[in-house]
Amino acid sequence: MTVAGTLTRTGRGSRPAWLAVLVLLAVVAVLLSLGLGAQTVHPADVWQAIVDPDTSDATAVVRELRGPRTVLGVLCGLALGAAGALMQGHTRNPIADPGLLGVSAGASLGVVVAIAFLGIGTFHGYIWFGFAGALAASVLVFALGSAGSHGPTPVTLALAGMALSALLASFTSSILIGNPETMSVFRFWVVGSLAGRDMTTAWEVAPFILAGLVLAAVNSPALNALGLGEDVARALGQNIALARTAGVAAVVLLAGAATAAVGPLVFAGLIVPHLARVITGPDHRWLIPFSALLGVSLVLLADVTGRMVARPAELQTGIVLAVVGAPFFIWLVRRIRMVRL
Question: b or e along 305-341 (b: 16 or more beta carbons within 10 Å of the residue's beta carbon)?
Fold first, then answer.
């Protein structure tokens, strides 16, 4: 019996039909993101601004203010959804999210170092320090998790991630305690938000996110084999170390770029793989794209909700995700029988 055959038999419903539904949901979220906020723009004006821009205020709002944050929301939603599915698959931990590999802690330390010691105070300025911190922390976690004679395993990766995240968080706190000015700048990043970023930020992270999505798709068959157990995966001809390395590299590219750009959006990578898994079952060839599409809808709808509930001001996306995501995740755990990883 092949891995594909086993997973096909455990699949649920018509996956192509569900995929079309999720694409439609993502498109609706994009249109809501472009049209709703402190100033509501009529759908006809949104369409006008997209296909035939003029000099009206509606076109300026859509193309110059909401367009960049919507594009960034799409990219980060794709990245965090796919990264969450990869993380839960490789660590075999249902509550794993990209922060478990030290991504959030490494990015936070990189941003704090940029603000405190280099005087950088703009999102465009310290995005690369955040990405470098996420990359360095994730590589170190993988090196520590691979140090044993049996190479990287779900348990060693998770333990190394938690230990290094705690250590990096203590470094970040020690810097912030002695630098109140750094704290005043850092707090706007760490809360997680799409506001204040322009298209330059989106173009800078897009290549890393697209590369990560390609690597995640390539890694999905190997992840299916690993789900049957490492001994079975070896018997099927999988190179375990190579598969783990590719998976961690994809998580670093996806979660590192998204976190550096908009700050930690914790629940995006945690919730959507569980919702997607209810539809797809454990087959990562479907789970990863479904999670990515659900991530787009979740991030954009959270951003729109933050704009609507506090008009004319707004709540940051990270706050909305935390307020909605925490009780929803608890309800999900209690009311729905989760699909086994």
Answer: bbbeeeeeebbbbbbbbbbbbeeeeeeeeeeeeebee
Reading the block at residue 215, the tokens are 């690597």
State the Cα–Cα distance between residues 163 and 313, nearest whole angstrom: 38
Q: What is the pTM assigned to this prediction?
A: 0.86
**Angle subtended by helix axes 15-35 and 284-309, to nearest 10:** 20
Judged against a pLDDT cut of 90, whether residue 98 lies above it is answered with no
- pLDDT per position as a tens digit, 257-303: 888 888 888 788 888 888 898 888 888 899 999 999 999 999 999 99
Residue whose C-alpha is closest to residue 89's, from 100, 103, 102: 100
Tokens standing for 171? 């470094």
- Could you tell me which of 212, 215, 227, 243 has the C-alpha nearest to residue 277? 227
Question: What six digits make up the tokens of 188?
Answer: 């706007």
* Contact by Cβ (8 Å): 294, 272: yes
Task: Please state, as a whole number, how many other Cβ atoms lie within 10 Å of the Cβ of residue 181.
Answer: 11
Encoded tokens for 10: 């455990």
In single-letter form, the type of residue at position 178 comes to G
Flag whether pLDDT at 340 surpasses 90: no
**Tokens at residue 212, please?**
């990560």
Measured distance CA(278)–CA(81) in Å, rounded? 15
Non-local (6+) Cβ contacts of 117 within 8 A are none
